[in-house]
Amino acid sequence: MRLRALLPGLLFLAAVLRAQAPDLILHHGQLVTVDPQFRIVDSIAIRGDRILAVGSYADIARLAGPDTRQIDLKGKTVLPGLGDSHVHAAEAALYEFDHPVPDMETIGDVLRYIKSRAAVAKAGDWIVLTQVFITRLREQRFPTRAELDAAAPRNPVYFGTGPDAAVNSLALQLSGIDKNFRITDGKPGRVERDAAGEPTGILRSGIRLVSLHSGEKIPTDDDRRQRLKMLLADYNSVGLTSISEADLGDVDLEVYRRLKDSGELTCRVFVVYDVDAQMPLDRIMARISAAARSPLHRYDNMLWLRGIKTFLDGGMLTGSAFMLEPWGVSKVYSIDDPTYRGMRYIEPGKLFQMARFALKNDLQFTAHSVGDGAVQMLIDAYAEINREFPLRSARPSISHANFMTADGIRQMQDIGIVANLQPDWLWLDGATLRKQFGDRRLAYFQPYKTLFESGVIVGGGSDHMQKIGSFRSINPYNPFLGMWIALTRQPRWTDRPLDPEQRISREQAIRLYTINNAFLTFQEKEKGSLEKGKLADFIVLDRDILMCPVEDVRNIQVVQTYLGGKLIYSLTR
Predict the structure, then answer these.
(1) What distance separates the 2 farthest-apart alpha carbons in the chain?
(2) Are 52 and 20 in contact (CB under 8 A)?
(3) pLDDT above 60 for 384
(4) Three-state SS for 134?
(5) % pLDDT > 70, the chain
């Protein structure tokens, strides 16, 4: 009778213990926690979407209940789920929606592609090719107006490379750009001209000056969702469980919202909302206010609208980044003016007002700032705001920040400015940049070691813009390639590293894509390391990233990817 009386209580206790037991234990691996001590443990316990405990198997095994599933890692290395601090995934997913676009390494490749498109296009339809950067072509130059004319004599051609472009004669004619043309709308832009004053076909920040009309297919809303799902699945296959959408508009934000609501979102998305700085200030403030009022501004670990992005300068890949010193006359970038410093898109006063308003409204502010002139201009704006109210907790950001200075880095640390950088650019474009600027002006090009030592939090990303495929994409989004670049600083097409003193350790390279990216998005207490209570996002690797030869780092494959404790990718599937 006494036992019968105790039975309900015992059953209740058993149920409580079962409910508190982990759902999953992974053991006998090498788990790189990326905690403050960078501990290595062999086991992890997970309940629901959270980490219950990490440690030795002897300790973790005691937590197991009768329903706990256990997986022997057999010595494999585990990392926290990786993040990419700067992607344009929604846009990139649609790049080959109409037709495949081949890889292009030469001007000949470019012209053959344009000729093939002209063969199937209607006369007068625009042929548009974007993000084939001149620094990544063997000839390292824009295709000429005459070359584009010969490739597509019946069609206007727009060869866009970042904010700048080369166009053919028909494109200039249809757009009314001739010897007498002048930009009169007050917005940034530049038409390059020859010695006689005739347009060469090179337009800087000039897409609004031409009327593009392509005959390519237009995606439906369902097409957008399916293509984005495909890309996110490929992100998962290389270990990415979190991304920052770096310049998202309303249409693509809605695509993400629908994926989240239907349970189909396989990456945690930090949204940086796009704001066109060329709009009047009242419209800019209204757009920032709308972001602050959005339901998506409330924290959600799957989809969170928390940032504002604008464009402060042009690009280093096209010759329009805003520099402290003149670019210098250049055949590569088609620069004839020895005083030319690049393109600045926002006046200091307007930049200050935009950044201040966003930060006051609990929105992280960032701007595309590539050249050291643009980087310093944004730092100066933050410094002025910081004198009014402290910014460290607001984590004001700089996007790209490729060219930096020692003084600027010190200011960033003092204020609490964070940055997202893209190592791929060092690998893909370092040889051309050295040819253009020389070693002196590249002393603080992507200075990872100095940033780590200075205490400036920097996150690693790709600026992925086009194509699905982690190595074939523009830019490559394979995070292990990014880590390898930060470890070696070895540009392609050359046998000499770029500023090898700025190389970082493997621990720092891992932090670049894990806890640092979590910090950049205000979520270092939620993810970015394998610690008790954090989200159970982690990946299993095919080799030991800490001990393998450095050349092998770029070839690491992900065996499994878990998001919130659920397996979302397996190499053997």
Answers:
(1) 108
(2) no
(3) yes
(4) helix
(5) 97
- pLDDT value, residue 6: 53
User: Any idea how long the chain is?
Assistant: 573
Q: Give the span between the Cα atoms of 511 and 304, in whole angstroms.
A: 22
Q: Which of 473, 452, 455, 472 is nearest to 464 (CA)?
A: 473
CB-CB contact of 255 with 230 (8 Å): no
Average pLDDT of 250-273?
A: 98
Q: Can you tell me the distance from the alpha carbon of 322 to that of 335, in angstroms, rounded to the nearest whole number?
A: 14
Compute the radius of gyration of the chain from its Cα atoms: 25
Q: What tokens appear for 171 in the block?
A: 């494109």
Q: What mean pLDDT is reported for the chain? A: 94
| Closest CA relative to residue 401, chosen from 520, 286, 492 | 520
Distance CA 464, CA 471 (A): 11
Mean pLDDT (whole number) for 457-476: 95
**Pairing of the two strands 24-27 and 43-47:** antiparallel
State which H helix or E strand residue 271 sits in. Answer: strand 268-274
Q: Specify burial of residue 80 (Cβ count, 10 A radius: 0-12, 13-18, 19+).
A: buried
Quote the crossing angle between the two packed helices 281-293 and 348-360, to the nearest 10°. Answer: 20
Query: In terms of Cα–Cα distance, which of 187, 236, 460 is closest to 346?
Result: 187
Q: Measured between alpha carbons, how far is 565 from 45 in angstroms, rounded to an integer?
A: 10
Start-end of H helices in 309-422: 348-360, 372-386, 406-415
The tokens describing 447, both together, are: 């200075």
For 422, residues 6+ apart whose C-beta sits below 8 A from its C-beta are 86, 400, 460, 461, 462, 463, 475, 482
Predicted local confidence at residue 5, as pLDDT: 60
CA 273 remoteness from chain centre: 14
What's the pLDDT band for 505 if we cut at 50, 70, 90?
very high
* Model pTM above 0.85: yes
On whether the CB atoms of residues 87 and 517 are closer than 8 A, the answer is: no
As a whole number, mean pLDDT of residues 136-141 equals 88
Q: How many Cα atoms are found within 13 Å in the side-chain-facing hemisphere of 537?
A: 28
CB contact at 8 A, 402 and 428: no
Write down the number of H helices and E strands in the chain.
17, 23
First to last CA, the chain: 54
- What is the mean predicted confidence (pLDDT) over 227-246? 98
CA gap 183, 206 in Å, rounded: 9
pLDDT of residue 17: 46
How many other C-beta atoms are found inside a 10 Å radius of the C-beta of residue 471? 11
